[in-house]
Amino acid sequence: MIEKAKTVNFVGAGPGAPDLITVRGSELLKTADLVVYAGSLVNPEILEICRDDCIIMDSAFMSLEEQVSAMAVSAETGSSVVRLHTGDPSLYGAVAEQKRLLEERGIEVRFVPGVSSLQATAAALGIQYTVPGETQTLICTRKGGRTPVPERESLDKLADHGSTIVLFLTAGQVKEATDELIKGGLDPKTPAACVYRASWDDEIIVRSDLSGLAEAMRERGIDHQALIVVGKCLDPGEASSLLYDSGFSHRFREGSL
Ligand code: SAH
């Protein structure tokens, strides 16, 4: 008899709206025996599709070892285990260490991607992060805090690229972050925005410029669960991609000009 692989599925829950989880993620949740989820960020409404007898644990109250042990014991008995992460598991999630410890116990780890708050924020703002002729680079980063960021990635250094910048985990330090970007050479009038709880029912959008963003966010009481976007992408003017330009040839279309 072939032994069934003992597996834990790491699933991206999406940014909050319950219909922004993938079909694959949703199917895994429906059949799960155990779900460990990040209670501080994942919308609990998403868990309504779980079976009534599914065991649901909030990782906020558990150490890494407790989480891994609960998932491993369950997977070892053949149960279907989901580790539900906010947005996409690949961004600012503590998945690498969970994967390592589970694999050390002989458990296979699989990933199901999710819609990140990065994409939900662009959707809320109605923008694209890459702007033809302006920037083709998106920097996702955060301000160093209790968890450090390498010195070479300090915001004043990253400002020098003039690229679109998206700041995770920084809403509580927005003044320090915007000051640092200005110190790094960005014009204080550079467009800036913040989206609080992108895709949730109580989503809030704040638009400002770099020098005014901290105050604008303070007025709305936003200091967590928000992404900050900085750059011309928020006010791109007439820029348009060559992709659909009538004079531009590519693999599928011969230019007509
Ligand atoms: N893996 C997640 C990010 C986890 S880090 C993702 O892909 O989205 C947690 C940070 O993500 C928060 O501090 C906040 O900056 C951002 N975040 C998560 N959900 C958000 C949402 N719905 N709207 C805005 N920002 C969000």
Automatic annotation (TrEMBL):
According to its UniProt record, the EC number is 2.1.1.133
GO molecular function: any one?
precorrin-4 C11-methyltransferase activity
**Cited SUPFAM superfamilies:** Tetrapyrrole methylase
Family matches, as Gene3D superfamilies: Cobalt-precorrin-4 Transmethylase, Domain 1, Methyltransferase, Cobalt-precorrin-4 Transmethylase, Domain 2
Q: Does the keyword Methyltransferase apply?
A: yes
Q: Which InterPro entries match?
A: 4pyrrol_Mease (IPR000878), 4pyrrol_Methylase_sf (IPR035996), 4pyrrole_Mease_sub1 (IPR014777), 4pyrrole_Mease_sub2 (IPR014776), Cbl_synth_CobM/CibF (IPR006362), Siro_Cobalamin_biosynth (IPR050161), Uropor_MeTrfase_CS (IPR003043)
Its UniProt pathway annotation is: Cofactor biosynthesis; adenosylcobalamin biosynthesis
Q: Could you tell me the Gene Ontology terms of the biological process aspect for this record?
A: methylation
Q: Which residues form the Tetrapyrrole methylase domain?
A: 8-213
- Fetch the PROSITE patterns from UniProt: SUMT_1
Sorted UniProt keywords: Cobalamin biosynthesis, Methyltransferase, S-adenosyl-L-methionine, Transferase
Keyword S-adenosyl-L-methionine on this protein?
A: yes
Which top-level group of life is the source organism from?
A: Bacteria
Entry's family note = Belongs to the precorrin methyltransferase family.
Q: Spell out the protein name for this chain.
A: Precorrin-4 C(11)-methyltransferase
| Species assigned in the record | Dethiosulfovibrio marinus
What's the name of its gene? cobM
